[in-house]
Amino acid sequence: MERRVLIAVFLSFLVLYGYQSFFVPPAPEQPPTTTTPSTQQPAAVTTPVAPSTPAAPVVDQAPAPAAVIGDAAEREIVVETGTVRAVLSNRGGRVLHWHLKEYLDASGQPVDLVPSEVPADQLTPFSLRVEDEATTRRLNTSLYRVTGDTAGRVDATTAAGALLFEFEDASGLRVRKEFQFDPRDYLVTFSATVTQSGTALNPGVAWGPGLGDIGAISSGGSFFTGNYIQPPQAIYHRDGDVERIAAGDLAAQPVHEGQFRFAGIDDHYFLAGAVNPGQARVEYRPVTLPGTGEAQRQLLSQTITFAQPPQNVRFFYGPKQFDLLRSIDGELVRAINFGIFGFLAVPLLGALQWIYGFVGNWGWAIVFLTILINLAIFPLRHKSVVSMRKMQLLQPQLKAIQDRYTGLKVTDPARQKMNTEIMNLYREKGVNPASGCVPMLLQFPVLLAFYSMLSQAIELRGAYFGFWITDLSLPDPYFVIPILMAVTMFWQTKITPTTADPAQQRIMLLMPLMFTVFFLWAPSGLVIYWFVSNLWAIGQQYFTNWWIGPSLAPAAAAAAAKSGNMKSVGAGRTRDAGKKS
């Protein structure tokens, strides 16, 4: 029985490690060719080209055809919605910045999903791309006439706002780009019409290197590096399945086609992509940008080409917040990678949000939700302790049976007789050897679902708990909570009933050390959950000891077994019965 418990705990640790290894993308490999970093160039001298080919120097370029419809000077237009502050340029009718007002970066400024220090050869969001490179260059560098702004500003904080960009040159190239900005839902409805000498073209819509949040750090996620942040990856929903492709795996197949429910790029907390684009072709390309110090940021650029020129296509550029995504499209919530235990993680997230509505602090919401979970599994844990107590009383008789068959090989038919005697003893004493393990194993799906929920929920990004815990999605900077968790886990192990020999008991006492290493760099919200669960388990163990009587010493257990006093265990307050035995 004790070996089974030990194996169960050890396998659970392996499951946790395996879950992180399989469901959090590894660090992307360095692409075979990288773009040479450079400082960000002013928009007036930017020369974007198609992201699938490196930039080529322009030598003896012919003069551009004269503009028929356009603007004389470059300028920027600021669009204010309730959730976004976007900056667009009339040079190419492109997005330069996409600031999320409700989410801050490490410097305390609103997150910009358009990263800074992008090389000049990269297309920025809502650039257009066609097969001819020279036409692509003109589409994205010409000065467009802008309609819909007032003194360079668009107010879409309470009602939808619109911008129209138009350009025509003497060669017969005509372009019309229209944006409609949603006031709350991070949505942009986009239309584009391009004709060349009267012939309609079908341009691809590009989102340049992204995303710009901390998720772009190239080191990826790992249990033992302290970095749980998922870097940008390709993501799309096609044929009922959601595919996630790490940047390092895109070299083999950069182009994906099909009937998409959504398609784009996401990182740990944010998503940039088209919603319900229908039949489309998506092309991805890894781009490496310099990072802080020696670190580099591995980003992705994408170009989406639709079956027909894009008309009223919805693009979402915002947080992977469950309720928000569900309000836009029911399948869009699958962009949040809750893993195989999503069926548990989603209701846990709903419960956490409900509690937060009362307490107003995500850390305390985790504490109260942990208490509610432990209340729900109280009967299972109580049954496990009672079963372990019965097994403790039964251990001398089990050992006597096993001693009679010592030295027999596993293939010896006589061992079957030993197993039969053991099973008869279990039936006679009313003991189920699995009842001590099963309740404990049933708790691990909840732990994995809780871990998945806490690691993916954007609500915990930057959530302040108190004192030194300023971000529940990051590890405890001083390791205080992990150490307290280790102490409570050691305490719990010491007071838990056991039938193990001294060597096995010493091995069991190593488990708190193993889990301490495991949790040192885990998100502090998860460690708080485990710590509170340990405290509850310790209190429940003392309550159970008071209810059914304290654990018996080995000699007393042997005497109790011989006297047939096992039935008294778990029948109520049996402390007196235990003393008599």
Identify the notable features of this structure and list them briefly:
14-stranded antiparallel beta sheet; alpha+beta; 581 residues; 36% helix; Beta-galactosidase, Chain A, domain 5
Describe the 3D structure:
The protein has 581 residues and is α+β, with helices and mostly antiparallel strands. It has 2 domains: 71-337, Beta-galactosidase, Chain A, domain 5, CATH 2.70.98; 347-580, no CATH class. 36% of the residues lie in helices and 24% in strands. It is built from 13 helices and 19 strands. Strands 1, 6, 7, 9, 10, 11, 12, 13, 14, 15, 16, 17, 18 and 19 form a 14-stranded antiparallel β-sheet that branches. α1 runs parallel beside α10 (502-519), α5 (362-376) runs parallel beside α11 (524-548) and α9 runs antiparallel to α10 (502-519). The chain starts with a helix and ends with a helix.
Helix and strand arrangement:
Layout: H1 2-23, E1 67-69, E2 76-81, E3 84-89, E4 94-104, E5 110-112, E6 127-129, H2 133-141, E7 145-147, E8 153-156, E9 161-169, E10 173-181, E11 187-196, E12 199-201, E13 204-210, E14 233-238, E15 241-246, E16 255-266, E17 270-290, E18 296-306, E19 313-319, H3 322-328, H4 342-359, H5 362-376, H6 378-404, H7 414-429, H8 438-456, H9 480-495, H10 502-519, H11 524-548, H12 554-562, H13 575-580
Parallel strand pairs: 2-8
Antiparallel strand pairs: 1-9, 2-3, 3-4, 4-5, 6-13, 7-9, 9-10, 10-11, 11-12, 11-19, 13-18, 14-15, 14-16, 16-17, 17-18, 17-19
Helix pairs in contact: 1-10, 4-5, 4-8, 5-11, 6-7, 6-11, 6-12, 8-11, 9-10, 9-11
